[in-house]
Design a protein that fits this description.
Shape: globular
Strand content: 25-35%
Number of helices: 2
Largest sheet: 3 strands, parallel
Structural class: alpha/beta
Radius of gyration: 12 Å
Number of strands: 3
Strand order of the largest sheet: 1-2-3
Length: 71
């Protein structure tokens, strides 16, 4: 099994195309019988990610290291 991290540090409505791309990719991985990829979602807002049904059953790492806010 290959673990691959995907950074999702944006709101769904700020980049709809990218968000939908991730949802479609994760749905494919979840339904595929031959894939050997285990996606790991890396985010700065775990509550936003947990609301999305397509991200269920995947490991989620929450960290402020991927925060996209300008400070």
């Amino acid at each position: 099994m290959i673990k691959v991290g995907f950074i999702i540090n944006f709101e769904r409505n700020s980049w709809v195309g990218g968000y939908n791309h991730f949802i479609n990719l994760f749905n494919f991985i979840k339904q595929s019988k031959t894939t050997k990829v285990e996606p790991i979602i890396i985010t700065d807002n775990i509550t936003r990610i947990k609301k999305e049904n397509s991200f269920k059953n995947f490991k989620i790492i929450s960290t402020n290291l991927v925060s996209n806010t300008n400070q």
